[in-house]
Amino acid sequence: MTVSTDILNQQSDSDILISIIMPVYNCEKFIRQALDSLINQDCPEKNYEIVITDDGSTDSTGKICDDYAAKYSFIHVTHTMNMGVSHARNTAMFQCKGEYITFCDGDDEVSPQLISVLTRAVDIYGKPDIIAYSHFKIMPSEGWPVYDIKNMKSSEAELIDSETLIIRTACSWGGYSWNKIFRSELAKSLRFDETLKVGMDHYWLMSLLTLHRDIKICCINYYLYHYIDHPNIGQTRQLDRVYDQNGMKRSIIYYEKTLALENFPERAAEKEHGRIYEQSVFVLYENQVDFSQDTYRRLRSYMRRYALEYYRSYETSMFLKAATFIKHILIIFHIHKRRKKNPRH
Fold it and tell me: 10 Å Cβ neighbour count for 134?
């Protein structure tokens, strides 16, 4: 009895361990490298799928993805109108068939050991709800870092609870979705907020962790994701530091929605306050933007309310704290001068 090659190359749903969601938009220069890094994995079997949402690209990105999907049966492509990265991720998420879900941007790349390491981690650490791993931030002009994947040992992992991950996420500028895998039913329990234009990953992760407190999280010390900082490109990915008038309004909405989450840990709230304070000082000092009175008052309010928490507990270098303090003093001096010139302001 003969079996066609096409049937042999097809996956059954039970074979898929990891679904990789890739939202893409106008990234024709980089999408091939991103897809090649996902295809050229060192695992013997293709126990994963790549689920792409083309977010209304106007260049050749969509056609490139279609060409790859025609060649590889584990790549699936959906084309939508341009609705933003959150809509693209939500569209793909409910098409995923894997036991776990992760994410990859169309202008980034992954380690060739991504799937093999995560497959072993799922088995070794008892199928956790979330597995978090490390990433490189790569500046193309500075070259690629050298990395080495060691044999995995159980002692290399750290098991934590959701509150610990919330606090660690609040201590940094990024609560990323692309350096973690999530149990499919966990990821699908919450859609990305399509009203947000900045901080989408961070807010989704924080919301997920506050909603599901009794979950098992495993952190492994492997650099499996390559975040590539391409200069001057327009991607579906939004830059969190777009500090124009609209950008600041979006940041304020994001911060206040995060702090309003139910059962948000007090220590994490302190860290978020520190981030709001630092950003407010940065914006008012660096930018020459004519903010609306409402935005301007909110930023100054954050500076007054959260300065103490920033200097007392925010986890950043003393050098940065000193620089921020100097900027704060200069802002106050500038405001005082402006009030003398215009008492009504």
Answer: 13
Q: What is the pTM assigned to this prediction?
A: 0.81
- Report the alpha-carbon distance of residue 206 to residue 214 in Å, rounded: 14
For residue 40, name the pLDDT band (cuts at 50, 70, 90).
very high
CB-CB contact of 11 with 93 (8 Å): no
CA distance 234 to 172: 24
CB atoms within 10 A of CB 326: 12
Q: Using CA atoms, how far apart are residues 31 and 13, in angstroms rounded to an integer?
A: 26
231-275 pLDDT, tens per residue?
Answer: 655 444 443 344 555 666 777 888 888 888 888 888 888 888 888
Distance between CA atoms of residues 34 and 19, nearest Å: 15
- In one letter, which amino acid is 331? I
| Residue type at position 220 | I
The answer to whether 145 and 228 are in contact (CB under 8 A) is: no
Instruction: Characterize the bridge pairing of strands 180-183 and 18-24.
Output: unpaired
Q: Which residues pair with 217 in a beta bridge?
A: 130, 160
User: Which residues of the chain form CATH 3.90.550.10?
Assistant: 11-228
Q: Does position 192 have pLDDT exceeding 50, yes or no?
A: yes
Question: Using CA atoms in the order 201, 202, 206, 207, what is the torsion angle rounded to 10 degrees?
Answer: -50
What is the token pair recorded at 106?
């169309």
Q: What pLDDT score does 335 carry?
A: 65
Question: What class has domain 11-228?
Answer: alpha beta
Element of type H or E holding 247: helix 245-259
